[in-house]
Amino acid sequence: MTTYSSSLLQLLATRGYIHQATDAAALDALAGKEIVTGYIGFDATAPSLHVGSLVQIMMLRRMQQAGHKPIVLMGGGTSKIGDPSFKDEARKLLGDESIKANIAGIAKVFGRFLTFGDGPTDAVLVDNADWLDKLEYIPFLREIGQHFSVNRMLSFDSVKLRLDREQSLSFLEFNYMILQGYDFLELNRRLGCRLQMGGSDQWGNIVNGIELTRRVAGAEVYGLTTPLITTADGGKMGKTASGAVWLNAEGPEGFTLSAYDYWQFWRNAADADVGRFLRLFTDLPLDEIAGLEALEGAEINRAKIVLATEATALLHGREAADAAAATAAATFAGGGSGEALPSVSTGGEIGVLAALVALGFCASNGEAKRKVAEGAVKLDGEAVNDIAAVITVTSERKLSLGKKKHGLLLP
């Protein structure tokens, strides 16, 4: 592993965040002598980000921890197009009101990870609609378009993938990389931004922005990407059998996840992922992480509980994390229920299939039927084998799917 002189790059390197950098030595020197302002962009295509975006949020947190200034760039403008990078088809176009609502939902999460304010290292949140919505087409083409080579744009993997598959790439989507490059130029002009960060799939877009900013503003700016975060089995981070792991605990149905379910997601990490996830997604010191990572056999479960509790505390607060851990201990070790379990009010009775769907254990009645038929469903510890079963609820009852999903049915 490369050793850096600045606390910023050394922190990012030792925690496992660095995949590529455009000029690591120059960025390292800059970060060692002055406060670096850096940004990551987040398009508002849903009312919540999911855990796949968490590594980017943590990158901004690490910037601030190392004494530098993070910018959260909301894509109020670019969300009207949608990033085509490595997508098989165009995103559904969103209207202004939907985008505004999505930004409001997404923005809530950042306050958990960053300190916002007017200080030199305080985070700021900006929206690229502030400048993209005001662009005039012909002046923009003359000032900015001349700096982009179509030949080079066609060579980027994100574009070639669609073209090689003979899948349509609209002119609207093709403009996305120009607008993202323009974002870096605007942030450099407005806020003195010197660094753009993002996932490895954003490398081409980041390089475009760097070259544009150098040509138009004459500024030396830098790019840094994170590795693609996958699980030990090769799966995509944040995707589970039951759907995306959302970061919002409150919001529109289908885009939320309770603190307890979030805790469970981390508790269920594979043994091989624990050390890496502790470095990326918690603030625990590296020596403590090394000790937890060295645990073997059943002892590794202690490390998973620490991972789950520390990751949940960052997003939901220490009290909610401790409550989730206590609920899990009561549920799995003591046979109790625990107050943080997901629950649903039944009005006195509910069908078993409806209960499984209402608790979020199954996405549909069809899936619920299969789980009952497989013998995976239990009510108060007893197997439920009848898909037509109606559960009478006069007091709190516990419904379980497999060994890891438990919920409460309330009168």
Automatic annotation (TrEMBL):
Its main location: cytoplasm. GO terms for molecular function: ligase activity. It catalyses: tRNA(Tyr) + L-tyrosine + ATP = L-tyrosyl-tRNA(Tyr) + AMP + diphosphate + H(+). L-tyrosine binds at Y39, Y176, Q180. A motif ('HIGH' region) lies at residues 44-53. Pfam families: tRNA-synt_1b (PF00579). Homodimer. This is Tyrosine--tRNA ligase.
